[in-house]
Specification:
It is a single chain. With 242 residues, this protein is mostly helical. The protein has a domain of 153 residues: Orthogonal Bundle (hpI Integrase, Chain A). It is built from eleven helices and five strands. The strands form two sheets. The chain has a three-stranded antiparallel β-sheet, with no helix packed on it. A two-stranded antiparallel ribbon has the order 3-4. A hairpin with a 5-residue loop joins β3 and β4. α2 crosses α8, α3 packs across α7 and α4 crosses α8. The two termini are 25 Å apart.
Length: 242
């Protein structure tokens, strides 16, 4: 059981923490919005389908997704291991550890795994068709023809993090006719939907890679009233046989 007074803790935190909480409210989809968006992402191609399903499922940060390698993906075991994040894209990409310096394992849903498998097959076929020009770094999400913007861009390089929000996500939001949110809002959506579904806070914190449960509570304090009502309803059913 988590014994943290989220509201009280927020009052004593710097304004930056309040900003994070506000950001989580504003840049977050409902379940219906997320489903509508994913339907559009799935129709836009195998890589987009896998990328956005994984972002919403895992809550991974944008640079963690850009740095993810197939060697970090266990399709049979149904999980990924987040061990690095992309720091610099380009011909010689550089990497660093995850934000809190701690690798983490994230279990995935069946549909996300199906989309990752389809993407892996698509990517293998794409590499074979372009074997003389494809630079295979082993990334799960790599540049295809649509991501080549400059002469330095090469097939197979990691996706550029800034392009995911400013080009890819914005375009898909417009097609799907859903409210535009930042790419980081996919992470907020993952956390919020899990909390509202009754998932324990410490499990959500582990999934997001937060170093402390209090951080999760600070950012998503606005979700706590919903959780309390759900807990009261479940306890009422147990105590009174309803």
């Amino acid at each position: 059981m988590v014994s943290v007074n989220a509201a009280g803790d927020l009052e004593g935190r710097p304004r930056r923490r309040m900003g994070l909480s506000d950001d989580a409210r504003e840049h977050c989809w409902s379940a219906d919005e997320a489903q509508t968006f994913l339907a559009t992402a799935k129709a836009s191609g195998a890589q987009n389908a896998a990328l956005y399903a994984l972002a919403l499922d895992s809550g991974a940060r944008k640079n963690e997704l850009c740095g993810l390698r197939w060697s970090d993906v266990d399709l049979e075991g149904g999980k990924i291991q987040i061990v690095q994040q992309l720091q610099k894209p380009g011909p010689e990409p550089t990497f660093g550890p995850p934000k809190n310096k701690r690798p983490r394992n994230v279990a995935l849903g069946a549909e996300t795994l199906t989309l990752l498998k389809a993407h892996k097959q698509h990517q293998a076929e794409f590499k074979m068709a372009n074997r003389t020009s494809y630079h295979d770094f082993g990334f799960v999400f790599a540049k295809e023809f649509g991501e080549l913007r400059t002469r330095k861009d090469l097939l197979g390089q990691p996706l550029q993090a800034n392009n995911l929000g400013e080009r890819s996500l914005d375009r898909l939001c417009k097609v799907a006719e859903v409210r535009r949110i930042k790419f980081h809002g996919l992470r907020h959506t993952c956390a919020t939907l899990l909390l509202r579904a009754g998932e324990p806070v410490h499990v959500v914190a582990q999934r997001l890679g937060h170093s402390d449960v209090s951080m999760t509570l600070n950012i998503y304090a606005h979700v706590l009233p919903d959780m309390q009502q759900g807990a009261a309803d479940r306890l009422d059913a147990v105590l009174h046989g309803r």
